[in-house]
Write a structure and sequence with these properties.
Layout: E1 2-5, E2 16-19, H1 25-92, E3 102-103, E4 109-114, H2 119-122, H3 125-133, E5 137-142, H4 152-165, E6 173-175, H5 191-205, E7 209-213, H6 217-220, H7 222-237, E8 245-249, H8 254-257, H9 264-270, E9 273-276, H10 279-290, H11 298-306, E10 312-318, H12 320-329
Parallel strand pairs: 4-5, 4-7, 5-6, 7-8
Antiparallel strand pairs: 1-2, 3-9, 8-10, 9-10
Region (Disordered): 1-22
InterPro entries: GlcNAc_PI_deacetylase-related (IPR003737), LmbE-like_dom_sf (IPR024078)
EC number: 3.5.1.89
Length: 330
């Protein structure tokens, strides 16, 4: 807007033309338009910056995960190759100059003590085959006939068939069918009762090696654990002859339990006594386990395929001092 103002100067100079800013509605509208554009531009920049920041973090994390997974895959691949090579070296080599396939005390007569029919194959199959390979006579003492599902007579016959397939004579199998030693996780097996059964067999058979569960019972079954504590009580009381060594089957964690031959390096490093079967002997143990047909539910079929106890047994020799420490630690 141009304002023409007259000059009141008495000297009569020309009029002065001044530029006056517009203050009408149109100017206000234009000013708000520019201001709104600035505000909208600022608001649009804020979410854009946040999105970019989050996107950068996401890319960094994703890159880190990819790199970590690559490293894990390489480590697993290297460990798997190590296990396979070590297994072939231990089992199939001709000269025993590195690691022996089995490391057990020498003996001519051994007693295996189990709680139920199928324990002898499910857990101790490799040990039985190794002892039989050494021409050691193996006796089996099974403290119940596995009548929890009312299949006692069937499981009795399955026990005889499985033991025979592993090279154990029928006359070397003793199956206890006592009312106070029934197959039931809820039933407490008395230590004194089990100890009497064990001592009777050890003395009458004149065995040099006694093999049974450790205090965890491999599967945690109370009947398995009860056998260990009965054996421990005999060790503490000095009733087991000094000529008889006691070996307990080591319980491993759930991950190691189902690693098959891939648990081999750990077993060799942590165990003092072990047995490692070749693939042919492993199939023999699996076939013996399948003879317990009444127990072949789906999870036992998976167990046969993946369990380390089908191919590896690691055992620990116990004595009086070891037992005292373990009982105090329990």
């Amino acid at each position: 807007m141009i304002d023409v103002a007259s000059n009141d100067d008495p000297n009569g100079s020309d009029s002065i033309i001044r530029s006056v800013p517009l203050t009408g509605p149109s100017s206000d509208k234009r000013w708000f338009k520019h201001e709104g554009a600035d505000v909208s531009r600022t608001e649009s920049q804020i979410p854009f910056s946040s999105a970019g920041y989050l996107d950068a973090i996401y890319n960094i994390v994703l890159s880190y995960l990819h790199e970590t997974l690559d490293h894990i895959a390489l480590v697993l691949l290297a460990y798997s190759l190590l296990c396979i090579v070590l297994y072939r070296v231990v089992v199939y080599r001709q000269r025993r100059w590195l690691v022996r396939r089995a490391h057990l005390p020498p003996c001519n007569r051994a007693l295996l003590v189990t709680a139920h029919p199928d324990d002898e194959v499910m857990f101790f199959g490799p040990t039985i085959l190794e002892l039989r390979r050494r021409q050691c006579r193996v006796f089996v003492l099974c403290l119940s006939e596995g009548n929890h599902d009312r299949k006692g007579p069937i499981r009795r016959q399955e026990l005889w068939d499985a033991c025979e397939s592993l090279g154990i004579r029928p006359e070397d199998i003793t199956l206890v069918n006592a009312t106070h030693l029934q197959d039931d996780p809820a039933t407490e097996w008395k230590t004194v009762t089990i100890a009497n059964q064990l001592l009777r067999q050890v003395e009458s058979l004149d065995v040099e090696l006694l093999i049974t569960f450790d205090k965890e019972g491999v599967s945690g079954h109370p009947n398995h654990c009860a056998i260990y504590f009965a054996t421990a009580s005999l060790c503490l009381s000095g009733l087991i002859p000094s000529s008889c060594k006691v070996l307990t089957l080591e319980t491993v964690n759930l991950c190691r339990k189902y690693m098959s031959i891939f648990d081999l390096p750990v077993s060799l490093l942590l165990s003092t006594n072990w047995v490692i079967l070749n693939w042919k002997a492993r199939r023999a143990v699996q076939n013996a386990m399948r003879l317990h047909n009444s127990q072949m539910v789906w999870f036992r079929k998976l167990y046969i395929v993946f369990s380390r106890y089908m191919v590896i047994n690691s055992l620990r020799e116990i004595n009086k001092s070891d037992v005292e420490f373990e009982i105090l630690d329990t």
